[in-house]
Amino acid sequence: MTEPNNTNNPEGNDPLEDAFNAPDAEGAPEAEGAEGVGAEADGQGGSAAEAAADPSEEEPIEDPTTEAEKLANERLEDLRRLQAEFMNFKNRSQKERDQLREFVVADVVSSLLPVIDDIDAARKAGDLDDGPFAAIASKFEDALTKHGLERYGDTGDQFDPKVHEAVMQQPTSEVEPDQVSMVFRSGYRVQDRVLRPAQVAVAVAED
Question: Please, what is the Cα angle at 200 between 194 and 203, to 5 degrees?
Fold first, then answer.
């Protein structure tokens, strides 16, 4: 039997076995490179996890109690503002009603001034000293007084062109100059509204 020729393999090794056990020259670096990339990826993943877990970079959580107090304070301010607006509206409405009432009373009383003048003339003539008509006239005048009617214009009053109508000047020493020396017709007003100025004579110094 012929023995295998080992001329080219002096050590007697099997060429097929050596080829199978030989390291892959190109495969080894690829495996090492893959392990490096994986390690790098693990490093980056670890850094991201650490950054996400860092409590210093997390957004602060608002206290629900503080939010409730803030909302309650806002609602309280709204309520106070509405209450102030309502009080202003109420006061303004009351003032407008009072003014309207004053205007209505003044208009009604103004239409009755001729009747009041007739009553004054009858009283001065002595026709209303006693009797049922005198009682009726007194009740009529009292009712107008309760509604704010005021008679003015007396001798000795300081002359005021806002409430007096000067029809003449009268030299006299009975009163001081620029005072009312004589009243021809009484004036009337309701509150601060003049219904009719008083017709008067104004005193001047005697020569």
Answer: 130
